[in-house]
């Protein structure tokens, strides 16, 4: 399922995780993976199901980071920053070398305006997985927070040159580029 998820084959990933869950209903990585596939679909109606799957992953395997990260990301997205930080810090305690955990905690710090901490986490994630060029999108977000759109676009371009982990990574870079262009336009309008 993980490879399908990285390739943005969300239905294929969900089917693979369903097979794993059918074999072992308490397999936390499969519950987390299915939850992430549902979350990644972007459908609001699937987020409560993803939340339930993340919660089950926590209950069945409390030492596994995935459920904490998944729930933390959902809470962060809904503006519940304090609860999100608690869960994302727990995910970080469980696995300090997972680039997704580092990037999620970095996003929390980015939203809180803690740019140096966010930048350090994003850079560390990239060190762990240098072939995942999409992680440079998060450094571009730090650049945008500093109102440095040229540096942000340089990070996006560097990410494209490095390559990504699959179709999902390409989409992350595409979204990042769109955000940089919109922010550049906003800054130009403010200057005129």
What does this structure look like?
By secondary structure, the protein is mostly helical. It has eleven helices and no strands. The chain is globular and about 60 Å long. The chain starts with a helix and ends with a helix. The mean pLDDT is 93.
What key phrases describe this protein's structure?
single chain, 192 residues, mainly alpha, 11 helices, 0% strand
Nutshell version of this structure?
77% of the residues lie in helices and 0% in strands. The protein has 192 residues and is mainly alpha-helical. The protein is built from 11 helices and no strands.
- What fraction strand? under 5%
* H/E element sequence: HHHHHHHHHHH
Question: Largest beta sheet, briefly?
Answer: none
Helix content: over 70%
The tally of strands reads 0
Structural class: mainly alpha
Radius of gyration: 17 Å
Total number of helical segments? 11
